[in-house]
Each structure stands twice: as C-alpha cells, then as structure tokens.
Amino acid sequence: MKNRVVITGMGVVAPNGVGLEEFETAIRNGQSGIEFYQELADLNFSCQIGGKPKISSEKLKNYFTDLQLRGLNSSGIIYGVIAGTDAWADAGLSKADEEAPDWDSGIIFGTGILGVDKFREAIHLIDAGKTRRLGSTSVIQTMASGISAYLGGILGCGNQVTTNSSACTTGTEALLMGFERIQAGKAKRMLVGSCSDHGPYVWGGFDAMRILPGNYNDTPQEAPGPLSALAAGFIPGSGAGALLLEDYASAKERGARIYAEVMGGEVNSGGQRGGGSMTAANSQAVQRCIKGAIENSGISANEIDAINGHLTGTSRDPVEIENWILGLDRKKENFPYINSLKGLMGHCLSASGSIECVASVLQLYKNFIFGNVNCEKLHPEISTLIASEKIPRKTIEIPLNIIAKASFGFGDVNGIVIFKKITE
C-alpha cells in the first residue's frame, strides 16, 4: 500500500501578493503585479516591464535575524525563506528544538539561478583584490542549494534536504519528488517549492532572445495575457511558492487542516526531438505526460474539472491547448475550464510552477476559478478548439473536485500534477 499524500500548509511570495490572503484576493479580483521598471529602461531593455514581489524591510525582520540580513543580497533566498516558513507555520508545525532535528520532515526546494546580484558583487570585489570583504555568506547565497540549506537550518529538518532545477518545471517537479518520498514511506512531511531571483541579470537573456514584449512599456497592466490573440511574448517575473506535503495518517492524527490530496502526476522529456527543442516542447511528450499523470493518479480524463496551464502568452499557447485536447480526448464544450496566472504576475521562471500550484490548490479548496486577464480577444486558433466559456475572463464560483496543474520548461521538460478535493 502506498501512503496517501495531502497538503496541509502553503506559502506564497508573488508579484501581485505576499501571503495567502493577499495573493488569493489578487487572483480573485484580477489584480496585476506587473509594473514598469526604470532600471530596465536605463539598461536599454526592449521589455521594460516585469513582476517583483513587494517586501518591506520590517517584514524581512519577521523571517531573518539581523545577522542573517547583514550582506544578504539574494532575492530568491529571501522569497523562498518567506514562502517556505509561511507554509510550515500554516500547517501548524513548530521548528525543531536545538538538540535534534525533525527526522521525519524534509525539504525539496528548487531554483533556476540563485544569487545573481551576489555573484555580481563578488566578481567586483574579487577583481579589485578585496576577497576578504566577500563575507561569510557569499557561498550559501550563490550555491544552488542555498535555498534548501537556509530553510533546512531555520526549520531543523532532518530528512532529505535538497534542491532541484528543471527550468520552468522546477516547482511542479519538486512537488512530485516530495510526493513520491512520502508515498514510499521515507518521510512523513516534505516542504516543497521553488524560487527565482529578479532583475536585469536574470531577465536579460530572455530580452536578448526577443521573446519578451516590448510594446507595453507605457501600459504594463494592459499587456495581453496568455490565450490572447494579441499576446506577443511572456513578461518576466519572480517570487516563490511553497507547499507542505504530509502523510495523510500523520495529518489526521494531529488534526491538521487539509487543503487537498495529491493524487499523482508525471514528469518526462521530449528529448528535444520530434519538434521539441531547447525552448519548445515536443507535443508527443506533452500528451504522454498528460496521459501518464492521469493514469498514475487513478482517475479518468473526464473527471478533471479545471486546468491551470503553463500558458505563457507566446505562439506556443495554441499548441498547448491542442496537446491538452489530444491528451484528454476532450474538446469544445466538453473541455475543462482552463486558466493561466501569468497574465497577473508574469512568468516567474523557476518559481512559476510552485506559485501556480498554490493558486491551483486555493481554487480547489475555495471552489473558484480565477479569470484570465487581458485576453478579451481569444487567439483565433484557440477559439476554434475549445468553447469560449471554458476560458473565464472573470472569476467564477463553481464546485471543483479535481484540478490539473502543468509546467513545461526550457530543455523540453514537462511536469503535471493532479490535485483532488480531500475525501475521508
């Protein structure tokens, strides 16, 4: 028998909301976190808009000691620590005491690139012959596993503590890795999630690829969202999301509030073959991932009420819809409701999967589907594939039982997880 896995805590740091309450209000009301940044204009970026979470210096002191804040210059670590510790507290858990770690709890917290600003600072100091001024935290702020190491020390986790990295699929992959560890009986609880740094040194490469929109710098909150006929590229974002996964028996024993059950999922790769590339998904692999997630979850395709898609606002949006149709064998009026968070906060890169998993579970738990913003005029290819009402423009209140969350990342890697309303 495999252990059932449920979600008992969540935390989020997003461009349009920090903390579950603020974030839920934002996605329900279509509040955007996308803004113009003068720094990007000064650096001659084509796309001068993006999404950054707003965190005050006072709020930081609730999560870091004065010593930890000294020299801390990694936005990804800041976002990840806030989201992760919030998820831990939301689950009603206490930090391990000072004498021994919590052997039953672990962490899988991913990132794409971490500590870019700290790297830049370090390069200048080293080139100037001032290595001793780097500080004692420069290594932990720039190593990929810095985020899981920070959280592991703060919470005192004694089970597996590690970091994964799979581009835009990172957060969804981390969740499935934690799910499998609990399912196999190797841990009772796993804090899973992902984070991403912000700023020009992270976003510059995408601007150079010309896949970011450059014609909405004066009207950032009017930039066309995913699924729109006018969408001209994704908007960069940053932040972190975290979910506390727990063995169902453990959660019931301690009387924990349960948001949803993780039924299963699938990860795979298209091998950058058959139309797949470094930047585009192999459609056959995506369809296999959809079918595998359904099979592994023990459900039927017709039971899925809603999809939170990867959908970035590029030319790949219609392809993703077609892959869902073929993977589910459902189209037009029979297609599930579908939405994308990226119109409200941008594409948060390695943090996107985890933030969007939090949004998916909130929808399931609270019985609503948030609206797709700035896509009043649907992409013509999409409008021929599925019924317009399956792409809500405003939030709708509706009973939900099963929701699928998808992430497709650079390198032709895919991840899909299936969440279900908890049943005894």
From TrEMBL:
Give the EC class as a word: transferase
Instruction: Cite the Ketosynthase family 3 (KS3) domain residue spans from the record.
Output: 2-421
Q: Which InterPro entries match?
A: Beta-ketoacyl_synthase, Ketoacyl_synth_C, Ketoacyl_synth_N, PKS_Beta-ketoAc_synthase_dom, Thiolase-like
Catalytic activity, as annotated: (3Z)-decenoyl-[ACP] + malonyl-[ACP] + H(+) = 3-oxo-(5Z)-dodecenoyl-[ACP] + holo-[ACP] + CO2; a fatty acyl-[ACP] + malonyl-[ACP] + H(+) = a 3-oxoacyl-[ACP] + holo-[ACP] + CO2
* The EC number(s) this enzyme carries: 2.3.1.41
Molecular function terms, GO-annotated: 3-oxoacyl-[acyl-carrier-protein] synthase activity
- Record-linked Pfam families: ketoacyl-synt, Ketoacyl-synt_C
Q: Name one GO biological process term.
A: fatty acid biosynthetic process
Keywords for this protein: Acyltransferase, Cytoplasm, Transferase
One GO CC term of this entry?
cytosol
Compartments in which it is found: Cytoplasm
**Signal sequence bounds:** none
Q: Which Gene3D superfamilies match?
A: 3.40.47.10
Main localization (coarse): cytoplasm
SUPFAM superfamilies from the entry?
Answer: Thiolase-like (SSF53901)
Q: Which CDD domains match?
A: KAS_I_II
| Cross-referenced PROSITE patterns | KS3_2 (PS52004)
Q: Which family does it belong to?
A: Belongs to the thiolase-like superfamily. Beta-ketoacyl-ACP synthases family.
Instruction: Fill in the subunit field for this protein.
Output: Homodimer.
Q: What is this protein called?
A: 3-oxoacyl-[acyl-carrier-protein] synthase 1
